[in-house]
Recover the amino acids of this structure.
């Protein structure tokens, strides 16, 4: 076990003991550290950069921050290839920086959620290097999925499973004497070898990692690829139509025991620390099984995020997901985007406004004005639904997906698609804070600073109009909408966790009430529509037209009970 490098800072007990149900209604802001704010001018965001912007996040009105992996990593997959789970990437800062960030955020009433990546490690992780060095049959290899190849020379892969990043899932090793060796499994890139979760040391290690971070004041963990941990040790091929729980690498029943053990760790801490699962499981009831009372607290609701801009589709998704959550007593989450998917203002401005990894292409025609209008309406719809809300950094600025030149792309999804899929770098471009030219305040650019390196991904010049500074001066901006909506969401007790009731509405319109006094109505149609009864309009995503709700817009109404 690695010893802490610094003393654990004292966290005021009140920061975690107040409101044990905070996670049921929380607004959680996702910080992609590499692209949030760069304090030292190397073109890469860092923890001191985040610390310097805590005031911005507090003003936005968020309750918690979820940080994408901030650990030492070769960045073969943007940090989801972790070399040391108890450290901080040197480009991001130090463990002491993380501890100070957690404590400072807590002092402002903002909790910290970190990303845990249990399915795989980096090929630079000590365990994997030891496994390669120790050779076939060694105990070091048992922590992974090493296997002899098929065929007379062992040069055929053990299975034909397809990677989540497309392509093969097995890579052949070279023995210490230079001869071709065993193969190892990686459901993602070859730099991300999968761990063997049947091995007790793998389980013990991760429970210890949880404690390491909870001891430092972390309020929760987001669990990466949570449904993939357990593999069928018989290594069968994927059946043409796998029955539930029968897929050799996805959503296997035994995975739940892992999260029950994690829940016991979580519950041994004071305050409510939470488990948030990244669970891509298409069947809603199988998805909800991860949220039984002795497992995770919440999981990302991706069904809503992937649906097109359509009243019928989104209503069907809301009904499906609320019904799935009800039997397990967990609140739903509402998520419009994250660091893996096309930004909402771009998505909703396309003919096909749903999201699917397999359908991403360069040069897709996009109406950004329409997309932005719909993204405003969608943000308010999502914020009015029962449960917690996730906001991916930059969505509050209405940043579009950036179509980057191929030569700057880093994402393995792009390369493993043979260059067909633009990958996920386009939603990871560093944020624009102020000024008229790149780096738009992302890196230090004022007097007294040496010139900063260019941001690690280039920012489009037209982002001058989308900086925080520009939007703060414009009451019609996306940033104003988010700030106001989140303020109202916090103030109106009927919003957040709790019941919702559909109200009658014409086709192309969704209307529902929250409690006795708040109504949310979204017009997906082309024509303005009348508002339901109300005594005042709390907020609307677009100006009303002659008292009517305009096309592609959402309003929150107050009515007297
Ligand atoms: C899901 C993460 O969100 C994504 O960014 C990553 O590439 C994969 N899991 C693999 O860790």
């Amino acid at each position: 076990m690695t010893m802490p490098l610094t003393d654990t800072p004292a966290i005021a007990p009140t920061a975690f003991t107040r409101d044990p149900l905070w996670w049921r209604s929380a607004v959680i802001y996702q910080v992609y550290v590499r692209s949030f704010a760069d304090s030292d001018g190397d073109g890469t965001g860092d923890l001191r950069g985040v610390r310097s912007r805590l005031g911005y996040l507090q003003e936005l009105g968020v309750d918690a921050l979820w940080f994408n992996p901030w650990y030492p990593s070769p960045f073969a997959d943007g940090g989801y290839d972790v070399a040391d789970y108890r450290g901080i990437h040197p480009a991001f800062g130090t463990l002491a920086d993380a501890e100070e960030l957690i404590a400072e955020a807590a002092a402002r009433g903002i909790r910290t959620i970190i990303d845990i990546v249990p399915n795989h490690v980096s090929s630079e992780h000590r365990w994997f290097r030891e496994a390669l060095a120790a050779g076939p049959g060694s105990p070091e290899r048992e922590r992974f999925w090493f296997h002899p190849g098929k065929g007379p020379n062992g040069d055929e892969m053990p299975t034909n499973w397809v990677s989540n990043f497309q392509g093969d899932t097995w890579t052949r090793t070279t023995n210490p004497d230079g001869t071709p060796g065993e193969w190892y499994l990686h459901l993602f890139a070859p730099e991300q070898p999968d761990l063997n979760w049947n091995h007790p040391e793998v389980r013990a290690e991760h429970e210890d990692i949880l404690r390491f971070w909870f001891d430092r004041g972390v309020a929760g963990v987001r669990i990466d690829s949570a449904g993939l941990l357990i593999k069928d040790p018989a290594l069968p091929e994927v059946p043409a139509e796998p029955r539930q729980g029968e897929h050799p690498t996805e959503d296997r029943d035994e995975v739940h025991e892992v999260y029950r053990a994690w829940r016991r760790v979580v519950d041994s801490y004071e305050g409510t620390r939470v488990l948030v699962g990244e669970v891509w499981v298409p069947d809603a009831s199988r998805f909800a099984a991860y949220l039984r009372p002795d497992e995770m607290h919440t999981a990302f609701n991706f069904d809503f995020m992937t649906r097109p801009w359509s009243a019928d589709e989104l209503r069907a998704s809301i009904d499906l997901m609320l019904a799935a959550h009800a039997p397990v007593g967990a609140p739903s989450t509402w998520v419009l985007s994250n660091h893996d998917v096309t930004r909402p203002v771009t998505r909703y401005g396309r003919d096909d406004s749903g999201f699917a990894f397999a359908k991403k292409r360069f040069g897709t025609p996009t109406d950004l004005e329409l997309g932005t209008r719909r993204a405003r309406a969608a943000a308010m719809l999502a914020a009015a639904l029962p449960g917690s809300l996730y906001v991916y950094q930059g969505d509050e600025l209405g940043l579009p997906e950036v179509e980057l030149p191929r030569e700057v792309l880093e994402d393995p999804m792009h390369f493993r698609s043979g260059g067909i899929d633009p990958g996920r770098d386009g939603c990871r471009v560093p944020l624009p804070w102020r000024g008229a030219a790149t780096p738009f305040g992302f890196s230090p650019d004022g007097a007294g600073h040496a010139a900063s390196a260019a941001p690690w991904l280039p920012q489009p010049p037209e982002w001058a109009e989308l900086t925080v500074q520009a939007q703060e001066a414009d009451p019609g901006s996306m940033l104003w909408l988010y700030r106001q909506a989140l303020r109202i969401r916090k103030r109106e007790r009927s919003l957040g966790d709790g019941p919702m009731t559909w109200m009658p509405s014409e086709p192309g319109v969704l209307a529902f009430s929250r409690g006795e006094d708040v109504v949310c109505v979204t017009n997906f149609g082309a024509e303005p529509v009348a508002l339901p009864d109300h005594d005042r309009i709390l907020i609307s995503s677009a100006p009303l037209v002659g008292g009517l709700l305009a096309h592609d817009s959402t309003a929150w109404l107050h009515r007297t009970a």
Q: What stands out?
A: The two ends are 58 Å apart (CA to CA). The pocket of 1-deoxynojirimycin is lined by residues 77, 80, 117, 188, 224-225, 278, 339-340 (CB under 6 Å). The longest helix spans residues 368-384.
